[in-house]
Amino acid sequence: MSQPPLESTLHSSAIQSARVRVALALIKRFLRHRSATVGVTILLILIILAVAAPAIAPFDPLKQNLRQGLAPPSAEHPLGTDEFGRDILSRILYGARISLRVGVMVVLLSGTIGVLLGMVAGYYEGRIDTIISRAVDILLAFPSLLLAIAVITILGPSLINALFAIAIAQVPRYARVTRGVTLSQKQRDYVDAARALGGSPPRIMFIHLLPNVIGPVVVLASLGVATAILTTASLSFLGLGAQPPEPEWGAMLSTGRSYMRQAWWITLFPGLAIMITVLAINLFGDGLRDVLDPKT
């Protein structure tokens, strides 16, 4: 027997009100987490600088001026210039756009594929679970950087290929976490109720299970952005990622290592940019994990 319209409306309003209270409580807990607040603040500043790079960068990051090559930090060039006279500050600002974009795209791609594989493996179990789990185990047997290098060796060195290589290397993490959460959630009463009401497996997975699986995945994704940025910089440093003259931080480190004695600023400032960005994202991820942890 269906509920009266008024009772149903009141019930929906109560559910929405409870969700709002939970969301506000989580936000308050997050804001009380000092390290997470510091991480979010730094991350927001980096995002603003990256978005506004065309407006605030003092020079074109690709424009060469050989007369000012290897110029030390000065009023005209606050962070100095590289061997071709390109402004380091402008290249770092534009490099933030590349690094943050690659980090987010890697997480979206690897997270989507990993969550789909993990949910299918955890829900169906049996032979499907065995095939997916063994494939994930094989990928996990290789260090992520080594696996990315192997993929780039096949596809060829470029920033786009590095993005796909890093995404492939990160898929097993999301698949493993999602499968474990799906196996535990599948035994809950709400899943049995959905089956009893005639819900199809895709509907149960994406309507009922996914909201309860997404919490751990979000935490993993926040930390995965930092991993993707660091791996991208490592591949570019090895000459397998961004190619000159792209202003990518790892590529800037690679070109500046030959001038470390006479022009230390070429490697110092891109290295600091990588360190600060990765640290801010890790602080944010740690705070998010503490806030969403059911035990706390």
Q: Would you give an account of this structure?
A:
This protein is an all-alpha fold and 296 residues long. The chain has 11 helices and no strands. It has helices at 5-32, 34-51, 53-56, 88-124, 126-140, 144-155, 159-185, 189-196, 201-237, 249-256, 265-292. Helix 4 packs parallel to helix 7 and helix 4 packs parallel to helix 11. The chain is globular, with a radius of gyration of 24 Å.
Radius of gyration: 24 Å
Number of separate helices:
11
Going by helix content, strand content and strand pairing, the class is mainly alpha
Most strands sheet: none
Instruction: Report the β-strand fraction as a percent range.
Output: under 5%
Overall pLDDT metric: 86
Unreliable segments (pLDDT under 50, ≥5 consecutive)?
Answer: none
The helix-strand sequence is: HHHHHHHHHHH
Report how far the terminal alpha carbons are from each other.
40 Å
Work out the helicity level. Answer: over 70%
Say how many strands there are. 0
- Principal-axes geometry comes out as globular
Layout of strands and helices, then pairs:
Blueprint (H helix, E strand, L loop, with lengths): L4 H28 L1 H18 L1 H4 L31 H37 L1 H15 L3 H12 L3 H27 L3 H8 L4 H37 L11 H8 L8 H28 L4
Helix pairs in contact: 1-11, 2-4, 2-11, 4-5, 4-7, 4-9, 4-11, 5-7, 6-7, 7-9, 8-9, 9-10, 9-11, 10-11
